[in-house]
Amino acid sequence: MPRWIEALRAAFAAGDPQRLASEYDRLRHRPLLAPLLRLAEATYPVPEIVHLAPELDARIASHSLATASRWLLDTHFTPWRAEIPEAAAAVLSSRPAVIYGNHPSMLTPFLISAAVNRDDLRILSASYVHLFLPRYARYSLPVEIWPPRRGGWMEYLRSGVPALLQTKLLALLLGTAPVADAKERNLNSILRGADHVAGGGCLLLAPGAGSARPRAWYQGIGRIARKLAEDGAGERVFLIPYHEEHISKRRVCASLRRNRRAWVQRRFVYRRPVTVRFAEPQLLATLVPRPDDPAAITARLHAHYRELFPR
């Protein structure tokens, strides 16, 4: 394995965003690597992301995820807005809730965090995120949702070249596929999420994972709903679907870059506000009146979601 890959992987594995940014800067000045990196950077804003991570991480540490998220949105993704019905706002302020919806880009957890502004929000997140942002780990219930050995071309088909390049770069940093006990760890995070909600907390998940196109949902949301129903929490836990709009991996790239082409894209192509729309809250007992098979619960919640957000 080339030494430059080892150095990059070591910085990533250490969960040190400043060290990762420094290592990447060194690579950009190596004669043989520089042209390849410049080619990749023409499609995906790697240097912008690795240099943004240390400041975002520091803001999470100094304030909170919600405050840091609002800074991120106000700095790079203006205009943005959250449309929250009055009943949903009342629930989101303090009641136990499961928030679920689409996940068209890496912005999702920050957009929801900024809109909800709740310190007990926990997020079912890809396990590598806290390596970019160590202070984010406090809010994260890590899951292995990205298989490096077979995820690349599927990501291209789902979300285009930026998603493919993101997958390949992560494969470079992570090195190997998740170990055999990944499913057990994922289930543990899912059950911890259900326990957090049963104890009065708030949980965010994206059952379709990261894709710009509609697809079948994973059954984690069904497992969470079944456990809450089994624990008798259905009459006090609320389900709140959301839909994220006018955002994509391509828009994230254009928003983070600071060149003329990106300025033109922001000015003329991506003019509509990044938006998250929340639906009216429903008691879990309304949609999941009794414990059931996770697949059946997931299908029922997915059908309800498509009725609310048919696009």
Give me the secondary-structure topology.
Elements lengths: L2 H11 L3 H11 L6 H8 L4 H17 L2 H12 L3 E4 L2 H9 L2 E5 L6 H9 L4 E6 L2 H4 L7 E4 L8 H8 L1 H14 L7 H17 L3 E4 L14 H11 L7 E8 L3 H8 L3 H10 L4 E5 L3 E2 H4 L6 H15 L3
Record keyword descriptors for this entry:
Glycerol-3-phosphate (1)-acyltransferase; 54% helix; 16 helices; 8-stranded mixed β-sheet; 311 residues; alpha/beta
Overview of the molecule:
It comes from Bipolaricaulis sibiricus. This is Phospholipid/glycerol acyltransferase domain-containing protein. The chain has 311 residues and is an alpha/beta fold. It has one domain: Glycerol-3-phosphate (1)-acyltransferase (3-Layer(aba) Sandwich), CATH 3.40.1130. Helix content is 54%, strand content 12%. The protein is built from 16 helices and 8 strands. α8 links the parallel β3 and β4.
What is the CATH architecture descriptor?
Answer: 3-Layer(aba) Sandwich
SS-derived structural category: alpha/beta
Classify the helix fraction into a percent range.
40-55%
Q: Give the strand content.
A: 5-15%
Quickly count the helices: 16
Q: Note the gap between the termini.
A: 46 Å
Low-confidence stretches: 147-153
State the CATH class: Alpha Beta
CATH topological fold name: Glycerol-3-phosphate (1)-acyltransferase
Query: How is the biggest beta sheet arranged?
Result: 8 strands, mixed
Rounded to an integer, what's the Rg over CA atoms?
20 Å
Order of helices and strands: HHHHHEHEHEHEHHHEHEHHEEHH
**Overall number of strands:** 8
Query: What's the structural domain tally?
Result: 1
Mean pLDDT score: 89
The shape is globular
